[in-house]
Structures are given as C-alpha cells and as structure tokens.
Amino acid sequence: MEKEFDRKSLAKFDGRDGRPAYVAVDGIVYDVTNISAWKDGTHHGNHAGQDLSEAIKHAPHEKSVLAKLTKVGKLID
Q: CA angle, corner 51, sides to 73 and 3, nearest 5?
C-alpha cells in the first residue's frame, strides 16, 4: 500500500539534521534526499517537506526531473 502524507506529516521530511527530504508535486511525494541540488533540504529557495506543485511550474526544468526521482507516496488533504 502506498504511504499517505498530509501537509503536516510531509513537513517532517525537510532534509535537515539528517532527516530525509521529500517534496510533493501534483499529489505525488518524491524523495530528493540524495539529490545533490537538494543538500540540506533547500534548492533554489524551495524547501523540502512542502508541496511544490506551483513552484515547479516556474523552474527551468519544469517537471522533466520528476521521472528520475523515487516516488514514496501521495499527498492527501
């Protein structure tokens, strides 16, 4: 069964102090922990542990990078 995250539980995965770094896009939660661009849970002003569905629309790579990431669950509201 797929793991479910609400915004509060997703926020715990902020990539700080050794915690894993997860981000949500369009309802899917991805693991960015081992992505060097996400060192310390931050990437170009965006923070792990959040829903970045809007922010990714403004990124130069848009959603093309998502295929390379591991899906860990889904975001529920």
A: 15
Predicted structure pTM score:
0.94
**DSSP states of the chain:** --EEE-HHHHTT-BS-TT--BEEEETTEEEE-TT-GGGGGGEETTEETTSB-TTGGGGSTTGGGGGGGSEEEEEE--
Token representation of residue 60 = 């130069």
Domain ranges of the chain: 3-75
Q: Is the CATH number of domain 3-75 3.10.120.10?
A: yes
Q: What is the pLDDT of residues 17-60, one digit of tens each?
A: 999 999 999 999 999 999 999 999 999 999 999 999 999 999 98
